[in-house]
Amino acid sequence: MKFTAEQIAGILEGEVVGNPNAEVSRLSKIEEGTEGSLTFLANPKYINFIYDTKATITIVNSTFVPENEITTTLIKVEDAYKSFSKLLEFYNQIKLNKVGIEVPCVLSESATHGENFYLGSFAYVGENVVIGNNVKIYPNSFIGDNVKIGDNTIIFAGAKVYSETEIGNGCTIHSGAIVGADGFGFAPNEEGIYSKVPQIGNVILEDNVDVGACTTIDRATLGSTIIRKGVKLDNQIQIAHNVEIGENTVIAAQTGIAGSTKIGKSCMIGGQVGIAGHLNIGNGVRIQAQSGVGRNIKDNETLQGSPTFGYSDFNKSYVHFKNLPKIVSELEELKKKNK
Predict the structure, then answer these.
(1) Is residue 254's pLDDT more than 90?
(2) Hey, which of 49, 88, 326, 328 has its CA 20 to 30 A from 132?
(3) Residue ranges of the domains in the chain?
(4) Has 278 been annotated as catalytic?
């Protein structure tokens, strides 16, 4: 799909400097721009590239005045970075705006869906599923029985949504994610043999939740595993049964959260963090990457280490830890002198 500079300027409420009929069909970095591509200049460090870029159109701040000759058509806007982000969002909406039911696929007779629905090839939608408007379910996805999916939600190829799951409006579930698998519940008998504890709860994703590729969210043993509105989950995260994650919390890749832990609002959790079960983590908590959390955490704490402790204390301790061989050597010398 092609767009002219004039059309793009209309979307961004910008001013064209150059050829208003210049056409682009793809996006590029300014240093890698090619004919027919659109790029942007926001960081002054990249200003030299605008004089050599082969990009057909470049979005720039309204204050930009070229010092040398340029060949690219400019679109001047108030904030080039925000405008380019807006354009990316617009481009994504067009790219993902598929409609219709592809063949072959399975859409149960008892399932219902709203307007502008897309169901990709080899997808499966189970019994009594309720799907809202503008929902896109890509090929090879699985939607189990009695699932509810809100408006404007996208489920990418190969995602699996188990039965009874409830998904809100504006959610995104990426490829390979599994929502609603059984929690890890087993009980040993007197002989030490483990028997499965039935997991009969569900998973609830509230509005505007993003679930990264290959992330797993387990169903509750009883009740619900709950991901509150605005939560953003990176790829390859494990969330165990009966966990609750508060609004607008973000969690980076390879983090694991054990069962029944409650995480507050607006937390930031780094990659490869391990969080033990049955804990309460307050609002606004910051946990640095590769930390291990084994205790309750109060609001607004910033932590690092395994086990975690205060971020500033960790940094002070690490200075001494780096010098530990030297400190030990000096202690050994003192021992020798005192003999």
Answers:
(1) yes
(2) 88
(3) 3-95, 100-314
(4) no
- Mean local confidence (pLDDT), 280-303: 94
Q: Which of 123, 213, 218 is nearest to 162 (CA)?
A: 218
**pLDDT tops 90 at residue 330:** no
**C-alpha separations of 332 from 7, 318, 320, 321, 339 in Å:** 75, 21, 17, 17, 11
CATH 2.160.10.10 fits 100-314, yes or no: yes
Distance (Å, rounded) from C-alpha 50 to C-alpha 196?
A: 63
From 125, 148, 127, 129, select the one nearest 137 (Cα to Cα). 125
Give residue 311's pLDDT band: very low, low, confident or very high (50, 70, 90): low
Contact, 75 vs 15, CB < 8 A?
Answer: yes
Spell out the residues 6+ positions from residue 197 whose beta carbon is closer than 8 angstroms to its own: 185, 186, 187, 221
Q: Which of 174, 241, 278, 320 is catalytic?
A: 241
- How far apart CA 79 and CA 42 sit, in angstroms, is 8
Q: Which residue has the tokens 């983590």?
A: 281
Q: How far is the C-alpha of 19 from the C-alpha of 16, rounded, in Å?
A: 7
* Alpha-carbon gap, residue 299 to 282, rounded angstroms: 4
Cβ(105)–Cβ(84) below 8 Å = no
pLDDT band at 336 (very low <50, low <70, confident <90, very high): confident
Length, in residues, of the chain: 339
Asked whether 218 and 240 are in contact (CB, 8 A), the reply is yes
